[in-house]
Fold:
Amino acid sequence: MHDLDRVGTRLPYGLAEDGRLAHVSEVASGLACRCRCLRCGERLVARKGTIKVHHFAHHVDRACIGAWETTLHRLAKEIVLEAREILLPDAVAEVDGLRQDVAFATIFAYEAAEAEVDMGGLRPDAVIRGRGRELLLEFHVRHPCGPEKLALLRVRNLPAIEIDLSRVPRHASRAEHAEQVLRGAPRHWLHNAKVAAEEARLRRIAEEQAAVERRRRQRLHGRIADEVAGAWIEPASPGHSGWRIRAIDAGFGGFVGRSVPGAECFAVDAETWQAAFLDHVAISAAGHLVTGDAALRTLQKRQMLKAPFQIRRNWEPELVAHIRERVPGLRPPHEVIADYADWLAERGLLMRVRQGWAAAQTVGWEARPRMEAASESRRRQGGLQDKLDTLLQAAGLPWTDTAGWFDKAVPEFGVAPRVLAEEGGEGFERLMRRLDELERMVQPHASPYEGGLLGLPLEAVRQRRRDEARARQEAARLEREEFARQAAERRRQESGDFVGTLMTRAVALMGQHAGTTWVCDAVSAATGLPLDEGQFALDWQARNRISEAMAGERDRIMATREAERRRLDKEAEAAAVVAGCRSRLEAEVVARFPGQPDWAQMWLRGKHPALGRSPWEHCADDRTLERCRSLLDAALPKGRRR
Structure:
C-alpha cells in the first residue's frame, strides 16, 4: 500500500482550532493539542514521546486514506500564501530532439497569492501575482496534472508550473517543508508562452528536417532497392562443401537444403547457409540462446549473403515496403533465418526460447563425437588415397580407376578399402603397411614383394623386380667368384712374398743349407706340400705360425751364439791370466839363472817331481805362480835364494 494510503498514518500536522495547520512541535502533547484531521475531521492525539518520532495520530484508530495528501496540499498552499518569493524552473523548449533554453531558473518575487481560485473551468492550487504578471501553481502529490488541464492552459495561454511534492519527506520541520515547496522540490513548466513560441519555431525546423530526411530516405531506399533488385536475380553459388560435410558428420544432413521463401538474399546455396546456421546454433552455441540478429551476424561474418544483405541494416517496414514494389518476394534475412529456425523447432532439433532459439546441450555433445569420428574417417581415406597415388606414380602407371578399387573387396581382407578406412583399427593399419611394402617394391632396383597385390595392376612391376633380382643374384655370384679369384691370387702372392722373405732371413741367420732346409721343412709342415707348391699355399694363420717359429728359432740361435761368445771370452780371459803368470814366472826363472838360459828353460819346462808336470804347465794363476816360486827357491843354492 502506498505510504499516502496507510491506515493510521502518522501525520506531522493537524488542523488547529484557528483553522491553520499546526506542526506537532507547536502544540501540547496528547489531546491537549486540540487538533483535528484535515481529511476526516476526527480528533488527533499529539504523540511526543522519547522513542518514536513526534507525530499526530487519530484518537480513534480508523482508516483515513489520503490524509497526508490532503494535508500536504493544504500545507503547500499555506506556505505559498505566507511567502513572497518562489523558485521558477528552467524554461526549455524541446521538439523531436531539438532543444533550446528559453530562460534559466530564477526567483520570482510576488506581492499577492490566492488558493483555489475559480478561473472558469480551471481551479489551480494557487495563483501568485507580482510585477504585473500572474502565475498558476499546481502541487503534484499523487497525480500529476492531466492532459485536459494542460490543453486548457495552452488554449488560454496561462503560465503555470507544477511542483512535485511526491518525494517530500513527511517527518520534517515546518521550515524544511517550506524550503521544499518554495525551492527544493522538483518543478517544471506546464505552460510558458515563450516556451510555446520557441517550440513552434522548433517544430517548424523539425518538420523541415523531417522533410529533408524523408527525401534522403526515399533516395536511400531507391538506391537500396536497385541494389537488392540486381542481387535478387543473381543465382546462388555453390558454397564451400565443408559446411555440408560438417552437417552430415554431425548427423544433421536431413535438415539442410530446405527451400525457404525469400532465400534469394543468400549468396550461397541453401545447403551451405543452413549447415553454417546449424553449426553455430546446434554445436558452437548449444545450450545458449541465439537470436535471429545474432545468427544473421554470424552468417554475414562468413560472407554468406549477397552484397546488399551483407551490410548490417535496419530492415524497417518502410524500407521493406519500398523494396517490395521492385522485388515482390523480398523478405529481410532475419525473417528467412527465423522461418528456417522455426521449421527446425517443429522437428525437435531446436527449441523456441524467448526472442530466439536454442539447441539442447546434449545435441552438441552428441554431434561432436560423430564429427570427430567422421573427420578421422576422412583423414584415413585421404591418407589412403595419397598412399595409393604415390604408389601408382612411383610405379609409372596411368591407372585411374582408383574409385573402383576403393569400393571393391580386397581378397586378402574380405572387405573394400573404403570400409577399412571408415572403420580404422588393425585392418586399416595392415592395409597401409601392405601398401608401404608395395611402394618399396615399385622403387627402382627394389626386391619383389611375393604377397598379395591388393587387386592393383602391379604384376608386371613385380615380374620386372623378379628379373632384376635374378640379374642381381647372377651379378653378385660373378662378383663373388671374381672376388674369390682375386683374393686367392692375393693370398698366393702374399704367400710367395712371405716365403721369399722368410728364405732370405733364414739363410742370413742359419746359412744357405741350414736356412733352406729349415724353410722347406716349415712350409711342408704347414701345407703338406713340397716347397715349390707349398710356398704359394700359406694362409695368414700358417704364415703367422711360421713367423712365430722363425722368431723362436732366431732367438734360440742367438742365445747359442751368445753363450759361445761368452765362453770364448772367458777362455780368452783365463788364457791372458795364464800367459801373464807364466811370463812373470819365466822372467823370474831367467833372473835366477843368470847366464844359464838353458838351465832356466830346463827347470821351467821340465817335469818337476813335486808337481807331476813342468812348472810352466802348472803355472796358471797367482796361487800356482806362488807355488812355482817356492819350488824355484828350493832348487837354488842357499846363497841365491830369495
Summary: The longest strand covers residues 133-140. The radius of gyration is 70 Å. Confidence is low (pLDDT under 50) at residues 1-8. DSSP finds 21 helices and 16 strands in the chain.
